[in-house]
Every structure is written in structure tokens, then in C-alpha cells.
Amino acid sequence: MGHRFHPKHANKLLDADRQKLLPQAAILDRLDLEATHVVADVGCGPGYFTIPIAQICKFVYGVDVSPEMLDMLSKRAAEAGLANIALMTAQAERIPLPDGTADRILCAFVLHEVDDLDGTLAEFHRLLSTSGKLMVIEWEKQSMEMGPPTSERIAKEKLAAKIEEAGFRTELWNPNPYHYVVLAQR
User: Fold this and answer.
1) How far apart are CA 22 and CA 157, in angstroms?
2) Could you give the CA distance from residue 167 to residue 126 in angstroms, rounded to a whole number?
3) pLDDT tens for residues 121-179?
4) Would you give the end-to-end CA distance of the chain in angstroms?
5) What tens digit of pLDDT does each residue of 59-71 get?
6) Where are the alpha helices (DSSP H) in 112-167?
7) Do 71 and 85 contact (CB within 8 A), yes or no?
8) What is the pTM assigned to this prediction?
9) Contact 114, 90 (CB under 8 A)
10) Are residues 163 and 129 in contact, defined by beta-carbon separation less than 8 angstroms?
11) Phi-psi label, residue 26: left if phi above 0, alpha if psi -120 to 50, beta otherwise
């Protein structure tokens, strides 16, 4: 497993530079969210995507391994007046929700940290409804001043192939020079 993002750096996940690189509206537009959807934001952190998803969708599960991150998200959700977010401390490989719970899953900057990539992708397949969609956002596998060490990153072609092996059809998108998105459908 690679290093895990430390909660003491959570402010980086909410700053204006991130908004420029990964504008929530433009990213979430690609996920085709609807008001009736239930979404799992796996590795939600302090809620960079969770809050705007909750403003669109019926219900959001904010899943993270860090209780500190979930505490931050809880406070931010309360400040935004959102009551449609359930917080769960869980590993991406074992999310305690029933099969087919989610219409959409968003997993941003997490897969390079998981212990079992294949198990995590199988878990996502299990959690998605039959018409569900998955969006994975990860770091390009290139040297840059930000992000995890290059050795811990997953090349986009490799990750897309792994997601396809897990039973999805995939499409790649680059929202900026530093990140890539794998959009996947069951």
C-alpha cells in the first residue's frame, strides 16, 4: 500500500487551486447525476465532491478511512444545511452497504492507496445498481511537484484495463494535465 493522505493536510483538498484544476460542476457533470440518485463518495475526505453531490442527489454515503476527515465533512454538511449525507468509516475494499445500493460511485485519489485494487473494484461492482456508473479520478503517472510519489501512481491505461476486468465498460478523460478520470458503466 502507498502512503495515505494525512488529515492534517485536508485544507489542500478544499483550496482555490484545487477548484481551478478540478471544478466540481464540470467533473460531476460527467457523472450524469440525477435528483433520485444514491451516491457513494469513496474516500470522500472533507467533502470536496460530497457536498455538491448532496446538493443534487437524494442521498450520499461519505465513505473514508479517516474519522478526522469524516468529522470535517460532518461540520461542512451541517454548515451547508445538508441532512442527506451518511458518514461511514470503512476501507474501500469493504464497504458495509447492501448489493446494488448506489446509482453512482465517485472515488477520487484513493485507488493508488488501497491494499487490494482488484478487491476494491469488485466491491464497487457489487455496490452499483445494474445501470450504475463509476467515476475514478487519479494522478497521471508522471513526475510533478504535487501528489503522491510517482512510483505509487497507477498509469491510466493500466487502471482502465483493471476496471474493465472488473466488469465495466470504460472511457478516459483528462480534465487537466495532472489528473485523469476513468468513467465506467456496468
Assistant:
1) 21
2) 10
3) 999 999 999 999 999 999 999 999 888 999 999 999 999 999 999 999 999 999 999 99
4) 27
5) 999 999 999 999 9
6) 117-127, 156-165
7) no
8) 0.92
9) no
10) no
11) alpha
